[in-house]
Amino acid sequence: MEAYGNKEVTFQFRDIEFRFVLSQGLFSSADIDRGTRLLLKVFSQVLDEDLARGRPLPRRILDSGCGIGVIGICAARAVLAAAGKNSAGKDDRPEEAGPGPLRVRCQDRDELARIFSRGNALRNGLGLLEARTEPLLAGDETWDLILSNLPAKAGEPVLDDFVNRSVRLLAPGGRALVVVVNSLAGFVRARLNKRLGERGLCRVREGTEHQVFVYEGSADPADPADPAEPTEPTEPTEPTEPDPIAEAPEPLLCRPHPFYLRNRAPYDMEGIKYEIGAVYGAAEFDRPGGAVEIAAALLDRLGGRVFKDLPGPVLVHEGGQGHFPLWFLLFLERNQAALPELLLLHGRNLLALEAARSNIAASPLSAQPAVLKVPGVDLGLDAAPLLSLAPPRGFGFIAAFPRIVPQTDPYAGIWEALGILLVPGGTALISLPAAQADRLANSLDRRKFPGLTRLGDMKRRGFRALVYRRNGPLTPVLGMCYGITLV
Description:
This protein is of the alpha/beta class. The chain has two domains: 5-216, Rossmann fold (3-Layer(aba) Sandwich), CATH 3.40.50; 261-470, 3-Layer(aba) Sandwich (Rossmann fold), CATH 3.40.50.150. Helix content is 30%, strand content 27%. It is built from eleven helices and 18 strands. It has helices at residues 34-53, 70-86, 111-123, 156-169, 182-196, 290-302, 323-334, 350-361, 383-388, 411-421, 434-447, and strands at residues 5-13, 16-23, 60-64, 103-108, 130-133, 143-149, 170-181, 203-206, 210-216, 261-269, 272-279, 314-317, 342-347, 370-375, 395-400, 422-433, 452-460, 463-470. It has a seven-stranded mixed beta sheet. Strands 14-13-12-15-16-18-17 form a seven-stranded mixed beta sheet. α1 runs parallel beside α2 (70-86) and α10 (411-421) packs across α11 (434-447).
């Protein structure tokens, strides 16, 4: 949070003052957004009504797609305060106030969101909060209260799944409160009406830009499907092509994933043909990004001789949905180089990591490397944990496509990470928008690491890729750019 936070704001909710650290790398980086404010306003009204009627307070709360954790944290503190007033009036141990322990989870597909949700919970005295890197809804646990500010760009299949899944994951008597932008409100309302049938919506609250929907769970919690949409076809259907996302041989990280194939298409990059199945919620769903294309062009220019004998496993940082890692493995095969035994996929977006792994698993490679998905934010801050996955020496090739967050300075951290993660004789590729890559190269020139030799440099269409070989010790001090020391 120290490295990626850009400002702290105060927020008043139900006579409780909260402090939240925001980040330029996450949604609503300037202030608490209007959709969240409207959702919490409706939740406050529902909570007051429940207290007046003597309805049991929710004890299992899920903030789905949590961002920095505002909704889950505010709701949990409000429930604890209400439980404390209804019991002995004491609030010295708020986690134990009320009838039974309170369980609160914030989850988001973005690892940075998990870090900020957990950190903001601690800042606001909510040590009980559990933060996870997961999609909107995952697993089969039931909840008394599901809250969500649904992403405007989630895609209709994802929203459809959220409606069906949330209804099934609500405990008897449980409720969901979701807020959506007006442009999606009609779709969500139609899906809820279809899914809930005669029970219908409990409440709809309209704002200037958003709408809040309040609804209860299925009358039968075991009901597995929308009655209007049978799970098995009633008539024979034409056979379809295998889905690399659904039929990947390895199990998904968290079942059941609300994974939705957005499209599947063939690509040809530097004469290497491959196929990618892309999912909602991740970039590069229609083509490789400019940073990936120039990275492939530079490696093709250098030739396969650079990678004939990799001195260690491969690490790909922020490799998207798999364009680059899959292309690189095929590049090695085309140049008759041995494939690595271990490939680590490291990045913030869990959906992108799983899509990349699944696309590699579904590819026609002569041999499949072991592929590990490792949620993470920053090569520098995550260097020590990553090294523990490739002992004892480190990685023979690192490809990094860093997501530079405004108001942060990760450049020195990248070089420090290479000093820890890259084995002598190993090669590193870093590809970025040209202005950011220029700052990265300049930061290396200022530090004058004698152990790195530049093998290649290419600029094209606003992007720049750099390739370095590590020849000797770099002797960095990890954490110099962040003021943090990892042990």
